[in-house]
Design brief:
506 residues, alpha+beta, 5-stranded antiparallel β-sheet
Length: 506
């Protein structure tokens, strides 16, 4: 039997390579390639080991190019046997951006199946980049990064967890976006000009909290930039930013409406409604309380978990709002950010799937922001490399959104990430470079006449934080030749002031 072999080609830079390659490298490259082999109705690629997925359903989105490599008579069983022999080479801890990446994997697969490799311009791209002056500057940094990683163990040729995740994602339905937007508490357009990042709205506020990071470079009086600390008061802020307030009564009214829809007609309908009244009253009292140490029963949390897991996707809105607020209480924050609890991880996977409605996507990003309420929440995101990579990837992707409300939530997340990426540059160098490049790209492309100034401010705060704490990023930003004048002339005083502070670091 003859089997068609395809190469799915993705651009990890999401268009940024085309924009920045010429000024950075002195030559234009079209994409930062990620590839996968598609055969037997399965998409195979090298990620956290050798992984398989439903075609067009991988975490990388949609391919920008599909290359017909040829046809083979090799049966699936023989190909899987070949993959089993490759698992030691293509393990997560043996991944290297330049020497052993996803394209090396697909090249090996193509050679096995067809006797020829994938197009050489894809495999040879790292060497092409490293041959440039800028590439030569980055190469020691990249090699040092990968030499220090201790990423996991070998994974087999079939990642069953990945397959299960894709099956879950397939079950998600496209939601009624306009209807959900009407249900969603929105930010107002007004902002307060302060030296902290604070935004007051009719129903939801974002507020800095007093949880300064221990041993943060911004608090180190021996840091080389600390001598100008009196000139950079905005940049020296290292507090996380949270989404704190909500219209609690409106949220629970909507939840009750959805409970009626979800459970009406069940055999034990009255018993279900009685339990809902009891547990929802408990949840409402907890959320309304100003005591962050308020006690929450395990029974109530388990009940809420049950609603999260059983409600249909278009009824998740009030549950995400409640979860966002529960993350602002110590006990429930510890419960949901325990590494053994998969609720937050599942939300990350849903964000990554890009199948959420606009409302659910916005609320999910706000939930992730509120993980920064505690050290436990920060560890949940940063100590799990898969969680962190999804957060970084999803943040970079969503920064390109035209939805200002979503972009404000995502720019807040970019700032929170910058604070904690900067604590350990040696382990987070690649993520920091990716985030810096994306932020610089968005700020460069932004039309200030139509942009929400609060978004620009938060992205500039993230940019300033990253370069304050990392000399390598200073050099990269200098090379990008960022246009500061646009923001120096901003009508927002804090935006222009922050821009001046960033210039002092260069």
């Amino acid at each position: 039997m003859v089997h068609k072999v395809q190469l799915h080609v993705y651009d990890l830079s999401r268009g940024m390579a085309k924009t920045f390659s010429l000024p950075l490298l002195g030559k234009r490259i079209d994409a930062i390639y990620h590839t996968s082999i598609v055969i037997y109705g399965i998409e195979w690629y090298f990620g956290g080991g050798i992984l398989r997925d439903i075609p067009f359903q991988t975490p990388h989105g949609q391919p920008f190019e599909i290359i017909e490599l040829g046809e083979t008579e090799i049966p699936k069983e023989l190909f899987e046997e070949f993959l089993s022999g490759q698992t030691d080479r293509f393990r997560m801890d043996k991944y290297h951006l330049l020497q052993n990446n996803c394209n090396h994997f697909t090249n090996e697969c193509s050679n096995f199946l067809l006797g020829v490799g994938i197009p050489p311009h894809i495999v040879d791209l790292p060497n092409e980049v490293m041959s440039t002056p800028f590439g030569s500057m980055l190469e020691p940094m990249i090699n040092n990064f990968f030499s220090q990683q201790g990423w996991g163990n070998a994974m087999g040729p079939v990642n069953n967890q990945q397959q299960q995740r894709q099956q879950q994602q397939q079950q998600q339905q496209q939601q009624q976006q306009q209807q959900q937007q009407q249900q969603l508490p929105m930010f107002s357009n007004s902002t307060r000009q302060t030296n902290t990042i604070e935004t007051t709205t009719s129903t939801t506020t974002t507020t800095t909290i007093n949880n300064k990071v221990e041993n943060h470079p911004k608090s180190n009086i021996t840091h080389k930039h600390y001598k100008i600390s009196n000139k950079i008061p905005l940049i020296l802020n290292n507090k996380s930013v949270l989404f704190e307030k909500s219209d609690v009564e409106a949220v629970f009214n909507k939840l009750k409406e959805f409970v009626n829809k979800e459970f009406k007609g069940k055999d034990n309908e009255q018993q279900i409604f009685n339990q809902y009244e009891k547990e929802s009253n408990q949840l409402k009292q907890i959320i309304k309380s100003t005591d962050v140490n308020i006690s929450i029963s395990g029974e109530t949390l388990k009940y809420f978990d049950g609603l999260l897991s059983t409600f249909s996707d278009d009824h998740q809105f009030p549950l995400l709002e409640i979860l966002r607020m529960l993350l602002l209480k110590n006990q429930s924050n510890q419960y949901y950010t325990n590494q053994g609890n998969s609720i937050i991880s599942n939300i990350l996977l849903k964000i990554q799937s890009k199948k959420l409605s606009k409302a659910s996507e916005l609320l999910s990003f706000r939930v992730i922001n509120n993980c920064f309420f505690s050290k436990s929440g920060i560890d949940y995101l940063f100590n799990n490399n898969n969680n962190l990579n999804i957060v970084i990837e999803s943040t970079i992707d969503a920064l390109h959104s035209k939805d200002k409300i979503l972009k404000r939530a995502v720019s807040t997340l970019a700032y929170n990430l910058s604070i904690h990426l900067s604590v350990d540059n040696s382990n987070h160098q690649e993520q920091s470079i990716s985030l810096l490049g994306a932020i610089e790209h968005i700020l460069t492309e932004t039309d200030l006449s139509s942009e929400d100034p609060e978004i620009s401010f938060r992205l500039l705060m993230a940019l300033g934080t990253l370069i304050y704490c990392n000399d390598d990023l200073v050099e990269i930003l200098k090379t990008l030749d960022f246009n500061f004048n646009k923001y120096l002339n901003s009508k927002e005083l804090k935006v222009s002031q922050l821009t001046k502070e960033i210039q002092l670091l260069l």
